[in-house]
Amino acid sequence: MAADLKHILTAELFHFMVDCRIPFSKTEPIDFVSRNFMSPDFKDKCQERAWPVLLALSRIGLENMPDMMDFLPPPTDPDFPIQCLGLQLILDQAPRALCTTASTDGRYVNSYFDLIAQRLVGTWLALPAAQRPDSWANRKGSMSLDYWILLRLWQGAPLVHNGTVESQERAVAFSEETRVVVEQMTGQRDPNRADRDTIFSDIYAFPRMLRDKGAPVGERVTAATWCWWMLKLMDVHKPIIDRFGRYPYQNAIKGLESTEKEKEWIEKTDHFAEAPPDVAKKVKEDIAQGRWTPLGGS
């Protein structure tokens, strides 16, 4: 199985995925004023290359999935950090761009590809400090702080996508490590430090930040100010998990029943990111029958 996948999970693909998500020079300053770093064109850029890979992976089954580290060079290889991120983008970001909750494809995001991505993240997080692909100490000789901020924040995304208390604690620590480096390198202090109690208690902050406010734009935006916003966006996942032990908006696409408190959250967020009833019904039927509707087949 791993041998077959090596024909499609290649170094060239991993570099392509990174270029789709972070299409900037690794060493030159990045213009944070006029750029949208959430990459709204990411789907269009990666679809042709990423979709066949997702299809191939979806047919293997989680129980037969090989170790994703087998498709990467050794952690000591200078190209390991970029290839590692590229593979992670295939598993974490491409499904979010290409598998909508408007169909049963959405089930694959949280219940299939996320699990593979989280295994990969757990593996590289456990590497010795000198081999960690996310470390500024290891990367500062090969990339600018601007590029590293983007690279590291995409590397940390699967931590917040994991709806467990343990992973959220790890995600908060990951964010703080990023924050400390940026503060030290820029001489600026994250103003959100003064609002930590609210950040970790507001269960509605995540949908509000993502849907209603969006990323900061304008002439005052710098690498640091954009970083502060993105770190806050990652941190506000935690209070939802602390309150419910899972993301209520994922219940429908996972075939789960929501509690009364979760229904209240869903109503107050105007059904933020929730799968429609017909899709939820189909997912429940699939789970009851022990099957998956094939990716792209709904």
If you had to describe this structure to a student in words, what would you say it looks like?
The structure is a single chain. This protein has 298 residues and is mainly alpha-helical. 58% of the residues lie in helices and 0% in strands. It contains 15 helices and no strands. The protein has helices spanning 2-5, 11-21, 42-58, 80-98, 106-125, 136-139, 145-161, 165-186, 196-199, 205-213, 223-235, 238-244, 251-254, 260-268, 277-288. Helix 4 (80-98) crosses helix 7 (145-161) and helix 8 (165-186) packs antiparallel against helix 11 (223-235). The protein is globular, with a radius of gyration of 19 Å. 39% of the residues are buried. InterPro entries: DUF924, TPR-like_helical_dom_sf.
Notable features of this structure?
single chain, 298 residues, mainly alpha, 15 helices, 0% strand, globular
Number of helical runs?
15
Radius of gyration: 19 Å
Largest sheet: none
Rounded average pLDDT = 94
Helices and strands, in order, run as HHHHHHHHHHHHHHH
Strand element count = 0
Q: Runs with pLDDT <50, length 5+?
A: none
